[in-house]
Structures are given as structure tokens and as C-alpha cells.
Amino acid sequence: MRVLIDACVLYPTVLREIVLEAAARGLFTPLWSPRILEEWRRAAEKRGETGIAEIEIEAVKALFPKASVNPTSDTQARLSLPDGDDIHVLAAAIDGGADEILTLNLKDFPARTLARDGIHLRAPDTFLLEFFHSDPSVLRAVLDTVMAKANLHGIDTSNPRALMKRARLPRLGKAVYAS
């Protein structure tokens, strides 16, 4: 399954790390456009994290060298969305042969518009929760890896369920870390 990842999923860090670790384990093939990566960099810049973001962006480009999609102007010209700034996301999904768009901005992508090109819209929480339900051990391994990385970077992981909630993955956190 090919999944176009929107910038709002690539930044913040914990959400991105979970999604990309799932991709690294072969659960899906990630896609993005250069513009999406630039949006990630700009979001990080607003928080004073430009240097870190540039390093992380180069690292994910190296890890997934075939993920980048340059949407054509022809594809972009035929599309219309409520927020014109999101047209490049849908165009990259279409030109990259994506099955799904992974985003937190569900309202910005009408299902009818996406259906014309056979693309489904997914929220990260639902997307990852389905992987957990189909094979809990793989997603637990993903989360263990991300939690270990977070610890190394000084992120408090003593309450993983709360961390998952802050990462906009409340249902996944509840399912994995239920008491």
C-alpha cells in the first residue's frame, strides 16, 4: 500500500517517528513531495528547530529514497479543494500512485474528490490502530523503538499513553497501553 504523508503528520516528531518506523518495517510505502518536506521544515523553523529538521529531512530522504513525488502541473490544474494550498498534496498522491493520504486535516480533502482518483483519506490514529489490530506484535515493536529513541532525546516516556495522546494518537495509545 502506497501512502502519501501530509506535512502535518511529518511534524510533530513523535507522530512522524511512529509513522515512519511503521513504514521502515514494511507496513506501507511512504510518499511525499518536496513541497511537503519544505512545509515540515517551515513548521520546525517556527519553533526554532530548523537545523534539526533539515538533518531529519535528509535522513528520511536517505531512508526512503523512492518516496519523493513531484506532482505535475497538469494534475494540479485539474484539481479543486476547499483549501487551494492542499492541491499539491492530492496531486502528489495521484502522480505517486498512492492508495491513501495520511493527514490530520481530514476536512480539507472531500471524499468525493479523492474517490475520483481512487484515493482514500486516513487519520494517523485510525491508520495505525488498524495495523495494531491486525498484528499487535509488529506495532508494539514500532512503539518500543520510538519510545526508546524518545528516551534518548530526553522526552519523558513514563506515561506512554499520555505521550500518544499528545502525538494525536489517543485511540492507539489506549489500545496499546490500556491498564
Give a brief rundown of this model.
This protein has helices at residues 7-10, 13-24, 34-46, 50-63, 73-77, 87-95, 111-115, 124-134, 136-152, 160-166, 170-176, and strands at 2-5, 29-31, 100-102, 120-122.
What does this structure look like?
The chain is an alpha/beta fold. The chain contains eleven helices and four strands; from the N terminus they run βααβααααβαβαααα. It has helices at residues 7-10, 13-24, 34-46, 50-63, 73-77, 87-95, 111-115, 124-134, 136-152, 160-166, 170-176, and strands at 2-5, 29-31, 100-102, 120-122. It has a four-stranded parallel beta sheet, with helices on both faces. α10 runs antiparallel to α11 (170-176). The protein is globular. The protein starts with a strand and ends with a helix.
Tally of individual helices? 11
Question: Using only CA atoms, what is the Rg?
Answer: 16 Å
Contiguous low-pLDDT stretches (5 residues minimum) are: none
Strand content: 5-15%
Largest sheet: 4 strands, parallel
Elements, N to C (H/E): EHHEHHHHEHEHHHH
For the secondary structure, the number of strands is: 4
Strand order of the biggest β-sheet: 2-1-3-4
Mean pLDDT: 94
Task: Give the overall shape, derived from the CA principal axes.
Answer: globular
Kindly state the percentage of residues in helix. 55-70%
Secondary-structure-derived class: alpha/beta
Distance from N terminus to C terminus (CA atoms, Å) equals 32 Å
Entry keywords:
alpha/beta, globular, 7% strand, 179 residues
Protein topology:
Layout (H helix, E strand, L loop, with lengths): L1 E4 L1 H4 L2 H12 L4 E3 L2 H13 L3 H14 L9 H5 L9 H9 L4 E3 L8 H5 L4 E3 L1 H11 L1 H17 L7 H7 L3 H7 L3
Parallel strand pairs: 1-2, 1-3, 3-4
